Amino acid sequence: MKPVVGIVATNKMQKSVVVQVERLFHHKLYNRYVTRKSRFIAHDEHNECNVGDRVRLDPSRPLSKHKHWIVAEILKKARIYVPPSAGNTADSGSKTEISVSSST
């Protein structure tokens, strides 16, 4: 088996991730290009992968019933949204209330 490249779909397990690999092929009957998706469960020793990361998987011996791949490297980290802290939004809201109450 050769190494595959995919995107991490979920990392809710300990030391395991589910990687989704897409492949594009030409359908001869419909004469269209079709996308197919495969999901592989892979071993992530240090829990470094997050959802959306692009990773390369290498085949390995069976580690469990469904886990036959190891995360070889993280090719690209996903951009994770960090919401603004609650303290900053509360301060700006109270200033707005003060300005509204003083003008009335």
UniProtKB/TrEMBL annotation:
Disordered as annotated region, ranges: 83-104
Biased amino acid composition, Polar residues: 86-104
A biological process from GO: translation
Matching Gene3D superfamilies: Nucleic acid-binding proteins (2.40.50.140)
Transmembrane spans: none
A GO-annotated cellular component: ribonucleoprotein complex
Listed InterPro entries: NA-bd_OB-fold, Ribosomal_uS17, Ribosomal_uS17_bact/chlr
Keyword Transmembrane recorded: no
CDD domains the record matches: Ribosomal_uS17 (cd00364)
Molecular function in Gene Ontology: rRNA binding; structural constituent of ribosome
Keyword Ribosomal protein tagged: yes
Sorted UniProt keywords: Ribonucleoprotein, Ribosomal protein, RNA-binding, rRNA-binding
HAMAP family named among the record's database cross-references: Ribosomal_uS17_B
Biological role: One of the primary rRNA binding proteins, it binds specifically to the 5'-end of 16S ribosomal RNA.
Matching PANTHER family: 40S RIBOSOMAL PROTEIN S11 FAMILY MEMBER (PTHR10744), SMALL RIBOSOMAL SUBUNIT PROTEIN US17M (PTHR10744:SF1)
Family, similarity comment: Belongs to the universal ribosomal protein uS17 family.
Name of the protein described by the UniProt record: Small ribosomal subunit protein uS17c
Protein's organism: Escallonia rubra
